[in-house]
Amino acid sequence: MASPVLSFRAEEDLVDKLDQLASATDRDRQYHLKRALTSYLESESWHLQAIAEGIADAEAGEMTDLQIVKAKWVKRAQNSAD
Fold first, then answer.
1. Cα distances (Å, whole numbers) of residue 50 to 18, 40, 63, 65, 70
2. Which of 44, 64, 43 is nearest to 54 (CA)?
3. Mind spelling out the 3-state secondary structure of the chain?
């Protein structure tokens, strides 16, 4: 099955850096772009999943009291200042 083709514009300095990387690693642009896109999507997907889980917890009434959270961060700040 053929892969879809993506096309986008990029600043010339980014393309130059990509070409330098491709040349130095003996890989083509596509290889590095796929790796970069995969890494970015994994990171963003994790973030979106964490947000969805937080919303689900809030909707289920499973929330931590704000005073407990504040106390934790105040203690952490005091410990790091010592």
1. 31, 16, 14, 19, 21
2. 64
3. CCCCCCCCCCCHHHHHHHHHHHHHHCCCHHHHHHHHHHHHHHHHHHHHHHHHHHHHHHHCCCCCCHHHHHHHHHHHHHHHHC
pLDDT in tens, 24-79: 999 999 999 999 999 999 999 999 999 999 999 999 999 988 999 999 999 999 99
Q: Which amino acid is at 11?
A: E
**Number of Cβ atoms within 10 Å of the Cβ of 71:** 11
The rounded distance, in Å, linking the Cα atoms of 4 and 37 is 14
Q: Which residue has the tokens 């596509």?
A: 30
